[in-house]
Amino acid sequence: MNDMTPTPGTGLMLPAGTDLAALFKDGAKIDPLIAMIETEVRAHVPDTSTNKGREAIKSLAYKVSRSKTALDEAGKALNEDARKQINLVDAARKNIRDRLDALRDEARAPLVAWEVAEAERQARDLLILDQLTNHGMTGHETSAAIVAKAGKIRDITLPPDFGGDRDVAEAARTATMQALRNMFSAAQVRETEAAELEKLRKEAAERAAADEAARIERERVEAERLAAERAELDRKDAAARAARQAEEEAARQKAEADRIEQARREAAEKAAAEAEARHQRELADAKRREEEAAQRERDRIAAEQRAEAEAQRKREESARIRNRVKREIAAALAALPQPLTPEAIAEALVAGGVPNCTVRF
C-alpha cells in the first residue's frame, strides 16, 4: 500500500494491485490512501516555464481525476450490489408482515365480531335505560303531551339479551311513570285553572267589548251631533262668506267700471290730443311742402333763367366766332390770286392756306 507506483497502463495514482472494493469495506483505509495521493501531488514541483513542465502539470491533474473516478465507480458498484441485497430483504420482510398480519386478523376475527356486537348491545341497553330514566319533560307541558310521553315509556320492551339489571330498569320505568303521573295531575290542575281563567278572561273581554261598543255608540252620537253643529256653522259661515264675496264682487265690479270709464276718458283725451297734434303736424307739413314747392319753382325759374342766359351767351359767342372765322376765311380767299377758281380754292384748302379749314386724307 505504500508503493505509489501507478497501476501499469491505467494512469492512476493508486498502489499497484490495490483492491478497491476492499478499501470501501474497511473505511479506515480510505483516508491513508487519499493522504498518500495528496503527498505525491504536493511533492511535485510545478514548472510552467517549459512546455514539458506544463504537460507534466496536466498529466498529474489528469491522474488525480482518473484516480477519483476509479474510486467513485468502485464505491458505486458496491452500492448497487448492496442495494439489490437490501431490496431482496425488504421484499421478504414485506411478504412476512402482510401474510402474518392477515393471519393474525383471521385468527382474531371471531373475537372482533363478538366485541362489536357486545359494544352495540351495551350501547343499546344504555340507551333503553336512559329512555326509561330520563323522560325529558319539564313539567310545563300539556296533559296530552305527558300522556303521550308516558305511553312511549310504557311501550318500551326489554329485549331478551338485555344485559343490565332488569329489576333496575323496571324500577326506573316505575319511577319515571310515577313522575309523569304527578306531572299529569299538576298539568290537569294547571289546565283546569287555565280554563277557568280563560273563561273569566273571556267574560271580562265580552264585558269590555260591550262597554267599548256602548262607548263607541255614544261617541258616534256625539260625533253626529257635533258634525251637525259644525255643518250648521259651516252653512252660516258659507252664507256670510257668500254675502261678503257678493259685496266684494259688486265693489270690485264698480271699481272696475270706474277704472274702465276713467281709462276711456283718458284714452279719449289722449286720442283728441294726438289728433290735434297730428292735425297741427299735417298743417305744418302742408305749409312746409307749399314752401318747398314754391322754393322749387323759384329755383326752377332761376335755373331756367340761368340756362337761357348761358344759352344766349353761347349763341352770341358762337355768332362771334362764326363771324371771325368767316372774316378770316374771306380774307384768306381775298388774298388768293384773282379771279378765284374752284381749283385755286381747292389748292388753297389742301395747302392749309385757308384758316379754320382742315382737309384730311
Question: What is the compact description of this entry?
Answer:
This protein is mainly alpha-helical.
Structure write-up:
The protein is mainly α and 361 residues long. Among the domains are: 20-126; 134-242; 267-300. Helices cover 82% and strands 0% of the residues. The chain contains six helices and no strands. The chain has helices at residues 20-25, 30-43, 51-133, 143-154, 166-335, 342-351. Helix 4 (143-154) crosses helix 5. Residues 1-10 have low confidence and may be disordered.
Question: How large a portion of the residues is in β-strands, by DSSP E?
Answer: under 5%
Count, helices: 6
Distance between the termini: 159 Å
Q: Return the structural class.
A: mainly alpha
In total, the number of strands is: 0
* Helical fraction: over 70%
What can be said about the biggest beta sheet?
A: none
The average pLDDT value, as a whole number, equals: 84
Task: Name the shape in a single word.
Answer: flat
- Order of secondary-structure elements: HHHHHH
What's the gyration radius in Å?
80 Å
**Contiguous uncertain segments of 5+ residues:** 1-10
Protein name: Cell envelope biogenesis protein TolA
Organism: Paracoccus liaowanqingii
Region (Disordered): 234-319
Indicate the topology:
Layout lengths: L19 H6 L4 H14 L7 H83 L9 H12 L11 H170 L6 H10 L10
Helix pairs in contact: 3-5, 4-5
Q: What key attributes describe this structure?
A:
361 residues; mainly alpha; 82% helix
